[in-house]
Structure formats: structure tokens, C-alpha cells
Amino acid sequence: MQMLSRRTLLLSALLSAASLNVWANPTGQGMTRDDRRQALDRFIAKKKFVREPFYLVDLDEADRLRYEAWVNQLARSLRKLAPSRQTKPVVLEKFKPVMKKFEDTEEEDQDRFLWYLDELMGIFSIESSDGLLSTWRHGYDTTGVMEARNAQALAAMTPEERALLDRLQGMTAANAEKMLRSALGQPTVESELLKGWELPGDPASQPGLEIHGHAVLFFWMTSNRFLYGRWL
Predict the structure, then answer these.
(1) What is the distance between the alpha carbons of residues 159 and 137, in angstroms, rounded to a whole number?
(2) What is the three-class DSSP state of 195?
(3) Which contiguous run of DSSP H or E holds residue 7?
(4) What is the mean pLDDT of the chain?
(5) What pLDDT digit, counting tens, does each position of 178-199 carry?
(6) Is the pTM of the predicted complex or chain greater than 0.70?
(7) Percentage of the chain exceeding pLDDT 90
(8) Average pLDDT, 10 consecutive residues per value, the chain (232 residues)
């Protein structure tokens, strides 16, 4: 599915919730101190910058290890923070030196790096970077882009597409996949982090789900007509 294979750049550039305003649904809400430490330990242990459905890059191993080390060093510095200093301004300030290191990397690697920053923000229950990440990645604060795109998408939808969207309004993070399977059948793209469907008779119209722990993004991409997305 060529369109979904390029969806990381599309979503980060157009929806704004991914690497732009950064994730409206924090996954670390209600974490205890021990929970947060364990989440950071799991994050550090994870192999990073490996080829995935949303990161179709085969990095040179030396580059992969260097990028992984930069991200893990950041996570370890956050882990060392006293609970009283695990605040949004302190955490975001810790991001800045690592962001500087990634300035000369490829765009796909920068996008994947922002996803790792999102994971860290989720662990610390930070809902938004207040434009820090979008300004770094795109040169300007894109807060509000998702809302504007959705308004454009609704205006561009056919009556049949609006009817389908209305059927899906009851989706939650827990039932979204079940509802989409019921409405559209088996996904045409399926991985742990991404589920994608094609509308019958219109393969260029592709709804899907992007999974980030407890946070799930529903997106709907169509060729040259609209891009819609919302957090569940």
C-alpha cells in the first residue's frame, strides 16, 4: 500500500498531532514513581531506529547505534531527575541538546526521533510541546492544523463518506479496530502499530489506526481530496 507506506511524513506534515503539537493523549497519566522508572527502563531497552511499517529505512548500523545512544542518553538523564523536577519545562529543556544533534540527519530519521520524544512525553504525562517540536521539525508552530484539516476534510467528503464517518463517531481506543473491521472487513495493512483499510471500490481512500500504547490515532487519507484525523 504505497500511500500508507508514506503516511509518517503525511501525518507529521499535515495532521500536526504527531510530531507537531505532540500527542493529545498522554499515556503516562496516573503513573507512580516506580511505574515511570519501569516505563523508562523499557524504553531504554528497546532497539531503536529499526525498520518498521511507519519507518521504512535501513540505517547503516553505525548510524543506528549512534542515534539510539543519543535517545537513550536522553532517557537516562530524565530517569535521574528527582520527582520534584519531572515537570514539563524541565523535561522539554532536556530535549533541546538532543534535538540539536539530530538537525543534520535525514528527514525520516528526524520524524522517527520525534516519535521517541512523544513516547517520553507520554511517560511524563506531557500533552503538548507548546510548539517546540513542530518549530524544530517544520520551522513553525502548527498548533491547530489538525482542526483546520478536519474542517477541510468534512467539506470535501461525499455523502457516503460522511455517512461512514458518522457510523464511526462512537469509536474509542478500545473498540476502534473492531468497528473498522465490522464496517470495512480485514485490514489491507496490519502490524502492531498500524492498521490500514481500503474503501471498497476506492483503493485511494484509506482509513486506518495508528497505535501508541493507550493513545490511538484514527486517520483517513484520500488521494488529492482530504486528510482527516482524530485521537480516540
Answers:
(1) 36
(2) strand
(3) helix 7-14
(4) 83
(5) 999 999 999 998 877 788 899 9
(6) no
(7) 47
(8) 42 41 46 88 96 82 98 97 93 97 93 89 85 81 73 93 94 91 92 85 88 75 86 76
CB 146 within 8 A of CB 229: yes
d(CA 19, CA 5): 17
DSSP state of 216: E
- The amino acid occupying position 162 is R
All cell numbers assigned to 104: 543534520
Rounded CA-CA distance 16/145 in Å is: 6
- Region of 185 (left: φ > 0; alpha: ψ -120 to 50; beta: rest) is left
Residue 143 CB burial class (10 angstroms; 0-12, 13-18, ≥19): middle
pLDDT computed for residue 15 by the predictor: 44
Helix, strand, or coil here: 45?
helix
Question: What is the model's pLDDT at position 22?
Answer: 38
Task: Report the distance separating Cα 199 and Cα 191, nearest Å.
Answer: 19
**Distance from C-alpha of 221 to C-alpha of 32, rounded to nearest angstrom:** 38
Q: DSSP string covering 54-123, please?
A: TB-----HHHHHHHHHHHHHHHHHHHTS-GGG-SHHHHHHHHHHHHHHGGGS-HHHHHHHHHHHHHHHHH
CB contact burial 41-56 (16+ within 10 A = b; e otherwise): eebbeeebbeeebbbe
Q: Residue 164 in contact with residue 35, Cβ under 8 Å?
A: no
Instruction: Count CB atoms within 10 A of the CB of residue 178.
Output: 10
